[in-house]
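Each record in this resource describes a single protein on a pair of labelled lines. The shape at a given residue is found from the number at the same position. The record below illustrates this layout:

***
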Amino acid sequence: MPILCAEQAVFPEYLLDEPWQESLGRSWVVIWTKSRQEKALARELMSWEVPFFFPTVPKENYIRGKVVHSHLPLFPGYLFVCGTDDERVTSLKTNRVVRVLPVIDQEQLRLDLVQIRDLIASGAPLTIEQRMGPGRRVRVRSGPLAGLEGTVVCRRGECRIIVAVNFLQQGASVAIEDFMLEPND
């Protein structure tokens, strides 16, 4: 039984599909929210029709012996907003924002977010990864994750690919067989 149904992760649906925002005076920023305020801010942004990306992943918890399904932010405390200066000021008025982080490389952030969206959509179990270290860049050449680019790490004898949002130095990883990978140098 879910506590709450999943929040809308992308508003509008076509936000990450192409770099349309620059022609409308919009640019990407990362909003660092107060503790546990991400979902409430996403709801308010959607009511004001401000474009945003808020990746969440499903999680099962056991509370008093019952299975409870919830959707947790993939990057706790962060929301990706593609808005005008006025829309950023409006988000600050909610009293849910700690800081607005400007993004230098707009297109790279958009491409990173597209990959995170595709990784979540694959339905594979994800592990949240923090502080990416240097590693081999690869591309998945076959399987349901074909086309994703990331960094390979090996943990406890298991090969994983990390898909990162470089701006935050965080990402998510998924277990993958090494024969599905090719170098991306």
About this structure: The mean pLDDT is 86.
